[in-house]
Write the structure tokens for this entry.
Amino acid sequence: MKAHDGMYIDGAWRPAAGRDTIAVVNPADEQVIAEVPAGGAEDVDAAVRAARAALPAWAATAPAERAARIAALRDVLVARKDEIARTVTAELGAPLPFSQAVHAGVPVLVAGSYAELAASYAFEEKVGNSTVYAEPVGVVGAITPWNYPLHQIVAKVAAALAAGCTVVLKPAEDTPLTAQLFAEAVHEAGVPAGVFNLVTGLGPVAGQALAEHDGVDLVSFTGSTAVGKRIGATAGAAVKRVALELGGKSANVILPSADLARAVGVGVANVMGNSGQTCSAWTRMLVHTSQYDEAVALAAEAAAKYGDRIGPLVNAKQHARVRGYIEKGVAEGARLVAGGPEAPREQGYFVSPTVFADVTPEMTIAQEEIFGPVVSLIRYEDEDDALRIANGTVYGLAGAVWAGDDAEAVAFARRMDTGQVDINGGRFNPLAPFGGYKQSGVGRELGSHGLAEYLQTKSLQF
Ligand code: NAP
Ligand code: MG
């Protein structure tokens, strides 16, 4: 595996201003696999200056040429997909087949979609006697988490580049190697110097310096609601644009007419994928009282079958946090029917696929984001009860509805306070806007809605 000693700034790898480093740990065996520099305010400042200097030319570059560079980036991601998958597996711990299909695969789709959108988007429209131009917002400060390390980078950077913005990225401290690989890919794709810059470092140091920097016009953040609130406040005080992609506690609503076995099976797999470290995971399964016992048995069986195919959690802190939530669930009276708080292996940050029954809507495990392989089965009496429970958290990121026919599921989904709902197991769509209602965030990523986040409008009257 390649390791860089520096930051990617203004089209080249440069030494960091300071000497601090971050040790990258493989969560499957707890071994240190690399060290990367922990950048500080000086590095962030250099990167923002490079991005500012590159902005006028990139903003003025024809959309077709921007599209060509993003298409070239997509091609590099395809050519290096095995290396990407191995790197994500090494630093995040996801099983290799999942890294190949999802962590390496999805960014190719998203980069491809932005290559097409950059070429086809209407950056200019006529409104009465006016011409309205969609212009890039400017310099973007992108702060990303570790759970889908490349996807979250590409969702921000490809959209920003398509819009004509320049970018400084501060990736998660747990997954900097994937970010370095991405910077190499950007370089190989021939994106001009300064258009994309990478500063690895710690959130409260490099991340905060980036969010606070005067030279940043828009902060795009994905991560915890706690940090998101601070970033929103900082951006608000500076009258800076901000996009926040935060936590979730999504409901998987199984209506009585649904195919119960399929809904439960897909629902459990949805939570266990990526070891439960998915902001949009359907961590609350809502089942009608008449089918509850059958659903509990099916879920326990599905979790047990999942068994060894699950990867570890990302780090020791998350491992302790998730096991703490499981203990809290037991203490509050929920019933464990699969998994539990014990670590299933001596080495690595593993947690067994865990299913809780007899969970009530106000329990901690039904309200807070656990970010681990834990699914809670909650009983409802009728549809209004199900809706109250589904909408009864501070979050509103995603969800699922299962019913005998799509129309019935759609009618329920339209009443949910949430940004996206999968109907009867609907497939992932890289063009569908992704983002939250309520405290799950502000703004949307992916597709044309994601592109619009990086644009501001100017109208000329004739
Ligand atoms: P986090 O601290 O919010 O991390 C997200 C990103 O923000 C990382 O790059 C982080 O840097 C950076 N950051 C942290 N503090 C910052 C600050 N004061 N100013 C600017 N940037 C800052 O999330 P986490 O600690 O990795 O995970 C904690 C919890 O967040 C999880 O258990 C989960 O509930 C939630 N989470 C949600 C998502 C999502 O997709 N919605 C993703 C990840 C986590 P560092 O890497 O150095 O911390
Ligand atoms: Mg953190």
Q: What stands out?
A: The pocket of NAP (ligand 1) is lined by residues 143-147, 170, 172-174, 202-204, 207-208, 211, 222-224, 227, 230-231, 245-247, 279, 369, 371 (CB under 6 Å). The radius of gyration is 22 Å. The CA atoms of residues 79 and 185 lie 10 Å apart.
